[in-house]
Write a structure and sequence with these properties.
By secondary structure, this protein is mainly alpha-helical. Helix content is 54%, strand content 4%.
Length: 96
Amino acid sequence: MKPTKKKRITLHKLIVVLHLLTIELLLMTNSSYVTTESGGRQNMFPTETRPYIDESVSYQGYPQNAEKVNGRWAMIGFIALLGSYITTGQIIPGIF
Protein backbone atom coordinates (compact mmCIF):
# COMPACT_ATOMS: atom_id res chain seq x y z
CA MET A 1 0.00 0.00 0.00
CA LYS A 2 1.47 3.29 -1.14
CA PRO A 3 1.23 6.34 1.18
CA THR A 4 -0.92 9.16 -0.06
CA LYS A 5 0.54 12.47 -1.14
CA LYS A 6 -0.73 14.19 2.01
CA LYS A 7 1.01 11.65 4.24
CA ARG A 8 4.25 12.02 2.26
CA ILE A 9 4.18 15.80 2.73
CA THR A 10 3.52 15.43 6.44
CA LEU A 11 6.35 12.93 6.78
CA HIS A 12 8.65 15.25 4.84
CA LYS A 13 7.75 18.16 7.14
CA LEU A 14 8.42 15.98 10.18
CA ILE A 15 11.85 15.01 8.86
CA VAL A 16 12.71 18.66 8.14
CA VAL A 17 11.63 19.73 11.65
CA LEU A 18 13.64 16.93 13.27
CA HIS A 19 16.66 17.88 11.17
CA LEU A 20 16.38 21.53 12.24
CA LEU A 21 16.00 20.54 15.89
CA THR A 22 19.08 18.33 15.64
CA ILE A 23 21.10 21.18 14.15
CA GLU A 24 19.85 23.53 16.87
CA LEU A 25 20.80 21.02 19.55
CA LEU A 26 24.29 20.60 18.11
CA LEU A 27 24.78 24.35 17.95
CA MET A 28 23.57 24.72 21.52
CA THR A 29 25.89 22.04 22.91
CA ASN A 30 28.89 23.43 21.08
CA SER A 31 28.29 26.95 22.31
CA SER A 32 28.87 28.40 25.76
CA TYR A 33 27.00 25.57 27.49
CA VAL A 34 29.93 23.15 27.08
CA THR A 35 33.56 24.01 27.66
CA THR A 36 36.60 21.88 27.00
CA GLU A 37 39.11 21.58 29.80
CA SER A 38 42.88 21.26 29.43
CA GLY A 39 42.74 17.45 29.35
CA GLY A 40 40.22 17.44 26.50
CA ARG A 41 37.33 16.66 28.84
CA GLN A 42 34.04 18.42 28.25
CA ASN A 43 32.40 20.20 31.14
CA MET A 44 28.63 20.71 30.82
CA PHE A 45 28.41 22.92 33.92
CA PRO A 46 31.11 25.57 33.48
CA THR A 47 29.20 28.49 34.95
CA GLU A 48 28.28 28.88 38.59
CA THR A 49 25.61 31.02 40.14
CA ARG A 50 26.76 34.32 41.56
CA PRO A 51 26.97 34.40 45.36
CA TYR A 52 24.33 36.50 47.04
CA ILE A 53 24.64 38.08 50.47
CA ASP A 54 21.44 39.35 52.02
CA GLU A 55 22.37 42.71 53.51
CA SER A 56 19.10 42.96 55.45
CA VAL A 57 20.11 40.11 57.82
CA SER A 58 22.40 40.98 60.71
CA TYR A 59 25.17 38.49 61.43
CA GLN A 60 26.27 40.31 64.56
CA GLY A 61 27.22 37.76 67.23
CA TYR A 62 26.72 34.82 64.88
CA PRO A 63 30.04 33.02 65.65
CA GLN A 64 29.45 33.09 69.40
CA ASN A 65 25.88 31.84 69.01
CA ALA A 66 27.01 29.07 66.62
CA GLU A 67 29.60 27.86 69.15
CA LYS A 68 26.99 27.74 71.92
CA VAL A 69 24.52 25.78 69.79
CA ASN A 70 27.25 23.37 68.64
CA GLY A 71 28.29 22.74 72.24
CA ARG A 72 24.70 22.13 73.33
CA TRP A 73 24.13 19.57 70.55
CA ALA A 74 27.38 17.85 71.53
CA MET A 75 26.17 17.59 75.14
CA ILE A 76 22.84 16.13 73.97
CA GLY A 77 24.73 13.58 71.86
CA PHE A 78 26.94 12.61 74.79
CA ILE A 79 23.92 12.15 77.08
CA ALA A 80 22.23 10.03 74.39
CA LEU A 81 25.40 7.92 74.12
CA LEU A 82 25.48 7.36 77.88
CA GLY A 83 21.76 6.56 77.95
CA SER A 84 22.04 3.96 75.21
CA TYR A 85 25.09 2.38 76.87
CA ILE A 86 23.35 2.18 80.26
CA THR A 87 20.13 0.70 78.86
CA THR A 88 21.55 -1.74 76.29
CA GLY A 89 25.20 -2.23 77.21
CA GLN A 90 26.24 -1.23 73.68
CA ILE A 91 27.67 2.09 72.51
CA ILE A 92 25.58 2.06 69.32
CA PRO A 93 22.73 -0.45 69.76
CA GLY A 94 22.76 -3.11 67.05
CA ILE A 95 26.26 -2.25 65.81
CA PHE A 96 28.79 -2.24 68.72
